[in-house]
Recover the amino acids of this structure.
């Protein structure tokens, strides 16, 4: 529906969370294509670190309701999952312990 009405902002709240990896990848590919084709601004909420790194031009990480990391530009382009985990631990003062996000593809 959102693409029929041509919005300026597309909100994606874990839109691939319940999908198998192959279908999730296809949905992300189509979403990326639509965003670029229609010149949309999108905010994608995800717990998948790989997707957070690979899509978009800015990454904002939150913990307990507050922004703890805000990365864009060259810094985001060169980011790895290991870097992201380290930054989370460094900024939040806690260790990231949920393997689901680390291992998801």
């Amino acid at each position: 529906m959102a693409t029929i009405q041509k919005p300026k902002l597309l909100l994606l709240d874990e839109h691939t969370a319940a999908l198998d990896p192959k279908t999730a990848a296809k949905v992300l590919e189509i979403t990326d294509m639509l965003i670029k084709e229609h010149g949309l601004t999108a905010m994608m909420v995800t717990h998948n670190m790989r997707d957070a790194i690979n899509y978009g031009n800015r990454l904002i990480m939150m913990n307990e309701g507050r922004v703890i990391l805000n990365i864009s530009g060259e810094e985001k382009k060169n980011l790895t999952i290991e870097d992201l985990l380290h930054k989370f631990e460094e900024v939040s003062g806690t260790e990231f312990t949920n393997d689901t996000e680390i291992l998801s593809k």
Notes: The two ends are 27 Å apart (CA to CA).
